[in-house]
Amino acid sequence: MGFRLPRIANRKTSDIPKGHFVVYVGESQKKRFVVPISYLNQPLFQSLLSQAEEEFGYHHPMGGITIPCSQDTFLDVTFRLGV
């Protein structure tokens, strides 16, 4: 006999389209960006993730992936990736 657990949905996570994930970007004030999972295979994006790993390890203060670069740098990288 089984039972169903209630589905726990956070409003912030429910507005993320399938195939995307959230990153927080900024040096002092963080901004939330929703990006395609396909970016994980891109060397430019991987370098941003390496910076995040060096700075935060696997503990990210915002609860999601926090990338420690300026928003301008992040937007430049995502523009190069085809956004």
From TrEMBL:
<comment type="similarity">
    <text>Belongs to the ARG7 family.</text>
</comment>
<dbReference type="InterPro" id="IPR003676">
    <property type="entry name" value="SAUR_fam"/>
</dbReference>
<dbReference type="GO" id="GO:0009733">
    <property type="term" value="P:response to auxin"/>
</dbReference>
<protein>
    <submittedName>
        <fullName>Putative small auxin-up RNA</fullName>
    </submittedName>
</protein>
<dbReference type="Pfam" id="PF02519">
    <property type="entry name" value="Auxin_inducible"/>
</dbReference>
